[in-house]
Write a structure and sequence with these properties.
The chain is of the alpha+beta class. It contains 16 helices and 7 strands.
Amino acid sequence: MFDLNSVILSSIGLTLTQVLVLLIFGAYQQRSLIMHWVRGLLVFALGLAVYFFSETSLIYGRHSAYIATSVTIIALGVSLFANGIRLLRGYRVYRYRTLVVITVMLAGNAVMINMYLPDRWLLLFNLTALMYVFGHATRSLVGHGKDFVANVFWLCCSLFALVSLMLVVLAVKVVLTDDSHLHTFPHWPIHAYLTTFMMLSMVTVTSLLLLVMHVRAQAGLQAIATLDGLTGVLNRRGLQEAATRMQAVSQRLRLPMGMLMVDLDYFKKVNDVYGHLVGDVVLKSCAGTIRAALRGGDVIGRYGGEEFCVLMPNTGEHEAMILAERIRRIIEVTPVNIAGVESMRSETQAIKCTVSVGAVSSETVGYVLEGLFSAADQNLYKAKKEGRNRIASNVEQLQAKSAEEGKPAKRHASLIA
């Protein structure tokens, strides 16, 4: 059987150790968020310390008054800790709720102690307040989704829910116990178990939330490393990684893989005439237009300068040609609004842009990525050489290949119409 005083001292030690870890971690991570947890754990440890001293002979007066004070301080610590959880989840932090809970607890305890109400009511009142505080923390931890972070939140939620359930069991035991045995409340075995589990839950949840912060930080760094800062699409590195994954899946399932190289026509002239700020707006607008025209599963990345690359799973030459034509038409009829952008020609409100597109698929050049990129670049060069604002592909090669094999080729004109 646990000795309650030993449990409380161990809990205080572990909590202070966790605070030290948080302070070290907070020097490199979100300091404002970490400080919510630090304050909550410090107040939680203070409440445990008050409870410990209430069990010694160093105090005078009504024993239940010290218990009520310690529970109020513990509730304040858990409430502050829950505010840090809400901040981590991106929820609104209701600071007044903490103030209301503590005010109600202080006022209720003061009234009950001064009116010399039975200890049963005092204990039930404080246990109910703790249930509410842990219930609020539990609700803040409810996970959404099935990823690793969501599973961690569900685990933390379960731990706090178990603490709430143990508080309910303790409250039921207080109701069912005779008045003559109620004075032995601190020495009940369930009391020591509850204190142990509460402390372990706080420490475990804190450690898991630090793990969540680390995972999110790594994901953020990964996103920064693979996204283009101007347009928000994949950069060259991210594009290469996506192409490698798509090529592996397509080749394994023997599905065609398509690729488009999209280049803005006369983009250098836009920079020279209107300035680089307008050029940036044009790039962002065109990237957004292309992304909106894609299907689910298609991937867009900035290949370099004013050139974008589109990766398309399960897409042959004809389907790639259709999507290329769709992108070309949408950009041609969608002027880029530059109103309000500092420009060397302030009278211009919109710029009409066109693109040249080189389309290719694994049906004609195979699955080797270098071959796909090279063929798409060659077709892009062909489209520009033939006058820009057009598309070029290997459809003719596919038709010739199909004719040689005695299979009817698809009619490109009917597909685009």
